[in-house]
Amino acid sequence: MVLYVYCLDIFNVYTCLSLVFIVFRLYILSFLYSFFLYQMLKRASTSLFAKHSFVSSSLSQSNRVHRIITSRSLIINNTTIKRKMSTTTDTSAPAAVPAETQQPQHPKHGSSKKKSKLQVSLKTPKGTKDWSDSDMVIREAIFTTLSSLFKRHGGVTIDTPVFELREILAGKYGEDSKLIYNLEDQGGELTSLRYDLTVPFARFVAMNNIQNIKRFHIAKVYRRDQPAMTKGRMREFYQCDFDIAGTYEHMIPDSEILSIVVEGLTALGINDFKIKLNHRKILDGIFQICGVKDEDVRRISSSVDKLDKTPWEVVKKEMTEEKGQSEETANKIGEYVKLNGSLKEIHSILSLDENITNNPLAKDGLDEIATLMEFTKSFGIDRYISFDLSLARGLDYYTGLIYEAVTAASAPPTNAQELKKKVKSEDEDASAYVGVGSIAGGGRYDNLVNMFAEASGKKSTKIPCVGVSFGVERLFSLIKQRTEAAAAIKPTATQVFVMAFGGGKDWTGYLPERMTITKELWNNGIETEYVYKTKANPRKQFDAAEKAGCQLAVILGKEEYVEGKLRVKRLGPEFADDDGEVIDIKDLVPTVQQKLSEIHKDGVNEVARLLRGL
Amino acid sequence: MVLYVYCLDIFNVYTCLSLVFIVFRLYILSFLYSFFLYQMLKRASTSLFAKHSFVSSSLSQSNRVHRIITSRSLIINNTTIKRKMSTTTDTSAPAAVPAETQQPQHPKHGSSKKKSKLQVSLKTPKGTKDWSDSDMVIREAIFTTLSSLFKRHGGVTIDTPVFELREILAGKYGEDSKLIYNLEDQGGELTSLRYDLTVPFARFVAMNNIQNIKRFHIAKVYRRDQPAMTKGRMREFYQCDFDIAGTYEHMIPDSEILSIVVEGLTALGINDFKIKLNHRKILDGIFQICGVKDEDVRRISSSVDKLDKTPWEVVKKEMTEEKGQSEETANKIGEYVKLNGSLKEIHSILSLDENITNNPLAKDGLDEIATLMEFTKSFGIDRYISFDLSLARGLDYYTGLIYEAVTAASAPPTNAQELKKKVKSEDEDASAYVGVGSIAGGGRYDNLVNMFAEASGKKSTKIPCVGVSFGVERLFSLIKQRTEAAAAIKPTATQVFVMAFGGGKDWTGYLPERMTITKELWNNGIETEYVYKTKANPRKQFDAAEKAGCQLAVILGKEEYVEGKLRVKRLGPEFADDDGEVIDIKDLVPTVQQKLSEIHKDGVNEVARLLRGL
Q1: pTM for the structure as a whole
Q2: Which CATH number is associated with domain A133-484?
Q3: B492-612 — its CATH code?
């Protein structure tokens, strides 16, 4: 009995202990679960809260949030003061605030009447900017130049949405995929902003079963990269792409793309550029020759790609220490990638290298280069091309020729590392220590369309493609440096200013009459303005005409007008003493047209002059 | 002892039971936690998974996911087959697939070789579409028409980023704020896609302390609304905005905006439109007169706004039952909002109404209408305007004149309710039962800029604004209906086709020579193409020229070319028997220029014809 009791007791104690242990374990587990759950919920609620914060602010905004946001705008305003304000490219920062508006963060009005109102930062998101009116004139001129170039080559244009299904973009950009902007999951499909125009183009070609197309596309793309605003490296930026899709003989479309690069940059007044060119087949052949395993090729290629900004020693170290290549392999690669010169020179050197000619991949590439040499000669663009074995380009999808156009401004400053150290945080703009980078770039990608066709369950159809992308912001930053010309850009197109002169007690100001005259000019396609005022004195009207950059005034004189007459007068200091010509109202339109065509007779306007670098 | 044992036993049993109960409770709790956690993780991982799915798919894609996505594309393909395929506006659906590619979802290649590869839906996100080449020609023509109109009125253009800080958009769109697209919080700022161009414009004006500007902006905006693709109601769509900011005398800028609406629509060949116009001050005065409390005014205004698609009885019910207005108030409102007619008619009626003339708000508005009447007469645009007291417009920020341009196609079909019932789910496109809606709209918003200035802690500065927004997709859908003309649109600009004719054993095909000739034409700005083939027979070259829509051929004849001669020939059936003209190579460019200028002499091209509705 005692034994039994004892046993029972032991048993119970054992049970109890084991149960206690289980309970304890479960407590730990629940605690971990709860903690994890708490973290998840915190994330979720942060975004939810942010979504509704402004709306709820007038109701019951907590002081804490108010304080945080207030101090945030304080910091921003400090930055405003510290930063050198200019009207140049970086307008993403708040504009210069006149002294009298440099008020404390609770202006009288705000703090007394609307204490609960949330403070808002008046700025654009990081890496984006507003384009001002005169900058837009230059940008539009770049677009017009490039799109007429593309049309000259038989291009058609298409447009695709700014965001794509996320699965379309996945797996196309290698390590850079982390830079893709995702849209919030608000129910429905998962989408992301496009990262380039090439992948949407390939999706378009595959989706519509297109066999061949020459298309151009000028549109914004998005990358969450470190911005360098004054160097034209931004998170929202334009690409101008021209691509030729279809099965053609080797190098015919490729050489046309190279010609387009030359024609485009020349048309934009850029003459000191060169096109660095390489061939993925040759590069990959070289990696094989040097003993890089197939699975390592793209990673080693990425290392080589850094050679434009990084010394060989650093790149070599990355290959051997981080990417597991032998010293010997790295040295061999080093010998090849230092080669650069004209197509002819490098082609000769490689043709004499038995390692190259015995490697089927490299041999293929080399033969294509031989064909290319003939075509670039026909197009007369040899002298712009530099065969550079260190050019690798980051994107995964290239399969043949690759190229980049660079100018002197493309490279970072020589003391970049030093300058970089001076910049305090990662959040700062990188303009001080980076270059403009390549101003155009592209290559051949023969498998991308088929990748989409196959992945969507369509019949496998290989649509080879080759294309180029011009970087508009980078080109803009170069063109904008031609400052004297840029300063003369007039943002309006206004040609004619309609005025009324008169006085005395019965003077009405002729407002409705000015409206009617202006309207007649508008109806005939003539850019016309007038002062939005019942009565305006002549000085104010001349000032407004000058501000609008008008060269012609149409004047309703108090007495002349009642007799059915108008006065047409040239504007500008050289015509100060010229009273103009009195005409019949019915002759208004032909007279104005005649005078404007005389004014624009030898018409290279200032934008064209700026673009051509005159 | 026994008692003790018994007690111990009881105690133990009790302990055990309670412990078991605790354990059980904890199990339940952990189960609930786990389930909740699983749901959270599932959501999170769906997006994570989607992000990496393509990359990981080749490694270890689970069959289940594979099946889900496969069946999803199956459904999509069903839709493809069921839908009437056309080359009209809705290209968001996968394009018509030729019979031979209508394969099962596991094509041989895909299923055998790459079984684990994730299936991708080749489509654009809901409510968005690709723009094909010939549609782009029409869209570009619309843009050119409107931007030259805006320039004619002294407008300058600016550009703002596609996304704004979320706080900038918050609180500007009333109930429609739920339609804003948010970007994911990927670290950094919270941002959203712009919902219109007006709020970013006001932010720009406030940020840069601009006192006056006439700006236009043609850009995409984003709304997560129910799409009706063939009616031009989309989630991604263009707006063409013109706004005048600055302090001017009453109604001068407002009447110019109305003139712009008339000029813009007329220039696009739309003549059967009318501009519905109202004044927020009059409307709000009427609500006061009818007994609506100040805090209810915007909500009642929203109800009135529905009168263009909803009968009065339904709107009245909403006012009385949902929005707490008395029967009497609703009836009074009903009397006023049914008024519409010319400015003059309605102005006379309201001027005789003592309730109106005694209400300071309504009186103010009525006086402005009197001024407006004078100006619209000067501009000669009276006949397009209909004073419609039922027009309210949804957006919160309007403070004065409001207007909308509508055509016959704007209204929904008369049996809309019936048609709507036939559509199975909310996910379907709404094209069947909605109208095109208003094709342009806008109004005066005098407080928006100041709202930003104050909220950012700047000095309060009132910058009154008035503007209009043209809906490009809706205009496009109307223009596209002029089908015969639309069918003639040629997407390329190519003018000249360079060909080579020859034969025999020693015939090279003159590829490099064709390249050189083509390049000379490109260098002189002439749109030129040639066949990308070493040797191409004449038939193929003529076919390619016809496909590109060329009207002129430059021919390198085998014998002629070696003698320094080229043949220039008109293309088209009427020139079939014409052998063209033999010229010296050095005369190529002037000859081609001369012939092209003859061809385009009386040059109204087909796009212009389409736009003008000829």
Answers
A1: 0.79
A2: 3.30.930.10
A3: 3.40.50.800
